[in-house]
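Lab meeting tomorrow. Please check the following:
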Amino acid sequence: HLDLKIIKKSSTREFQKTNVDLRKQIIETKNYSEFSNLIVEHSPSTIIVFDRKFKITLFNKTAVFLFDCRF
């Protein structure tokens, strides 16, 4: 019975640490994504990003101007 309590405490600590680590990774990923989007938005260069199926997933104002897109 004592062994199970020790295992439970240890597992709980490990899960808590993993949870904290995952939250940090989520925040870092979100910050990186926001930073990348700011770079794309404010770049004077034309930027168009495609996915693997060649669908446009991201573009900036310069790309809109270059291709004279209307939305």
Notes: The mean pLDDT is 87.
